[in-house]
Design a protein that fits this description.
heterodimer, A: about 300 residues, alpha/beta, Alpha-Beta Plaits, four-stranded antiparallel beta sheet, 11 helices, about 30% strand, B: about 325 residues, mainly alpha, 2 domains, two-stranded antiparallel sheet, 13 helices, about 70% helix, ABC transporter ATP-binding protein (chain A), AAA+_ATPase (chain A)
């Protein structure tokens, strides 16, 4: 689990005088799903396009499977499969012809592997139809089949669930987990949706305004639950009462912080009131990842 | 590399571009064949079963009459004079310039389409060869393969050369087959006069020689192929530079049409001879037409076109390799 498959160091990109990516570093390990989270315009897509060689970085290095992307483009790219934004395939060719087209651009892909990939994305029945007759979900799956043709170590998916219906989103999520857990692939997924990252990823990098502001395990980030902040009088008496029923921490400005639990929090309030304590303010705090995100990005919106 | 070129050819063929071009050529050839057939018929009606010499003589007299009329420009006048001299030469040497037959038709058709029609056909194939990948977004998949960018562009260029060759061959074959249906398929060895050159206002006939038609056709189609290749290369560059296919096509179309217009009116603007679109009428040097600008020769035009083609190729590769794809 500790083998590093993709390593990014000091990645920067300027367009004209404007620096749009201001130094991004992270390492991806074998078999993990890594989330790339940030609001629209934070630099996710630019970063991903640098990772896949579509945009040349102004500074920094990218290593894929130990090969430097700049000096050893072909070897580095042979380790990677990707979909950047929508999977735009040749709509006037059939699914199979598309796969053949991309297979011819790889060192060697045998037929049995192509069949295996088609089966994996469950397109056996439609693979001989022209791509223009495919639904978006099928195109997305064909895109993934195409990305898996070269038996990559790293799979990079930019907004993989964009435009999919709820069924498709869940399928995609399960599929990505499967690839990471069963095949040991490293999957980098970008998204502007918190819920998606939360459900699918092991680790997440939060990116805002061109730099990574935090990289951590999703569990760690979620460990900070929803909270209630109490503004009460007298404080010590209230604290004693509350600590008899739940965990209590001292908050800033003489507040008390407890976890938020649906009905119980209301009961605690009643308890306090019955004991003659003034509850001046009772403030519920939002879920931690979103909260953290807002804190970290300085209130930038995320949808 | 072969498999990459195969990919590109597959895309061109499946987009049915060559088929469309073949269709257009077939329709036009049929059209011109018919109009020429009517022309012949009318002439027969008018002159009866007359000797071709009479017709040529009649034409010479017509042109001489036009020369004496006032109100025609000097350029037009000198061109008429040259044509008269040429016709006279045919007459003196007993060579029928209107020898009917499919080879003659193919020769004339190629002569007339080299500076506009054929370049347009080439444009249909070349204009979206790179830009379509950008518009459709497939370029992102293409450039994230373990293949260097110059190889991808090279495969596209080789596919273009192949398509251009196919179109030129189709052009010859279709015009021969379709017109032969009406005019007959004979006439391969009919003599054709070539080697006219124009010095000042004099038709220089020193180097004039008679060669069999098939040899003339071979020379002519080599020149046609070369023009098609250069036009294809320049369109290819526009396809790299301009992401929007219709915009690229528009630029090329404007250049070609302006070339056709300019050719007939730039005699006094001498530096225009370095523009590629003025130099497209290579077959004119074979048949002895006066060049659009005095002093232009076949060698000169070939060099100008080659330089344009090479420059376009260099620009295409330099841009494509460095370009960031957003």
């Amino acid at each position: 689990m500790s083998e590093i498959t993709l390593s990014v160091k000091g990645l920067r990109k300027s367009i004209g005088k404007k620096e749009i990516i201001r130094g991004i570093d992270f390492d991806l390990k074998k078999g993990e799903v890594f989330g790339f989270l940030g609001p629209n315009g934070a630099g996710k897509t630019t970063t991903i396009r640098m990772l896949v060689g579509l945009i040349k970085p102004s500074a920094g290095s990218i290593e894929i499977g130990g090969y430097n992307l700049r000096n050893n483009f072909t070897k580095a790219m042979a380790q990677m499969g990707c979909i950047v934004e929508n999977p735009e395939l040749y709509s006037y060719l059939t699914g199979w012809e598309n796969l053949e087209h991309f297979a011819r651009m790889l060192p060697e892909v045998d037929r049995s592997h192509m069949n295996y990939v088609v089966k994996l994305v469950r397109l056996e029945e439609r693979i001989q139809d022209p791509v223009k007759t495919y639904s978006l979900g099928m195109r997305q799956r064909l895109g993934i089949a195409q990305a898996l043709l070269g038996k990559p170590k790293v799979l990079i998916l930019d907004e993989p669930t964009n435009g999919l219906d709820p069924m498709g989103i869940r399928e995609m999520r399960n599929f990505i987990r499967y690839l990471a857990e069963e095949d040991g692939l490293t999957v980098l997924v970008s998204s502007h949706l918190l819920s998606e990252i939360q459900l699918m990823c092991d680790r997440v990098a939060i990116i805002s305004k061109g730099s990574v502001i935090k990289v951590d395990y999703v569990e760690n980030l979620l460990a900070m639950q929803e909270k209630v902040i109490w503004q009460v009088e007298p404080r010590e008496a209230a604290k004693e009462i509350l600590s008899s029923v739940t965990d209590v921490i001292d908050g800033p400005d003489g507040t008390i912080i407890t976890p938020y639990l649906e009905i119980q929090s209301a009961n605690w309030n009643q308890m306090l009131v019955e004991k003659g304590i003034h509850v001046n303010e009772m403030n519920r705090k939002s879920p931690a990842l979103e909260d953290l995100f807002l804190e970290l990005t300085g209130g930038e919106s995320i949808d | 590399m072969i498999s990459l070129v195969r990919n590109e050819m597959l895309k061109i063929v499946r987009k049915k571009r060559i088929l469309i071009v073949a269709g257009i050529i077939a329709v036009l050839v049929a059209l011109f064949t018919y109009s020429q057939y009517r022309d012949l018929e009318r002439r027969l009606e008018r002159f009866g079963d007359v000797d071709w010499r009479t017709t040529v003589q009649q034409q010479i007299i017509d042109m001489q009459n036009r020369l004496t009329s006032s109100g025609i420009s000097d350029e037009w006048k000198s061109e008429l004079q040259l044509t008269i001299q040429q016709q006279q030469y045919y007459l003196d040497n007993n060579v029928n310039p209107m020898e009917p037959g499919a080879p003659s038709f193919a020769r004339m058709f190629a002569e007339h389409s080299i500076n506009l029609l054929l370049p347009l056909m080439i444009m249909v194939v070349a204009a979206d060869i790179v830009s379509a990948e950008r518009t459709a977004g497939t370029v992102k998949l293409l450039l994230t393969r373990p293949v260097k960018r110059w190889k991808i562009l090279m495969s596209k260029y080789l596919a273009l050369i192949l398509s251009v060759s196919i179109i030129v061959i189709l052009f010859g074959v279709l015009s021969y087959l379709i017109s032969g249906f009406v005019f007959g398929y004979l006439g391969w060895s009919a003599p054709v006069i070539t080697g006219f050159s124009v010095a000042g206002n004099e038709l220089n006939t020193n180097a004039v020689q008679m060669i069999p038609q098939w040899q003339y056709l071979l020379m002519e189609f080599s020149l046609v192929w070369f023009v098609a290749l250069i036009v294809g290369t320049i369109t290819f560059m526009l396809s790299v530079l301009i992401r929007n296919t219709p915009a690229g096509m528009g630029v090329m179309l404007a250049a070609l049409i302006s070339g056709a217009i300019l050719s007939s009116m730039v005699a006094s603007w001498e530096s225009a001879k370095y523009l590629f679109m003025i130099n497209l009428n290579l077959t004119g040097y074979l048949s002895g037409q006066a060049p659009p600008i005095e002093g232009m020769t076949l060698g000169f035009s070939l060099i100008v076109l080659a330089v344009w083609g090479l420059a376009a190729l260099v620009v295409s590769f330099a841009v494509f390799i460095r370009q960031d794809i957003y």
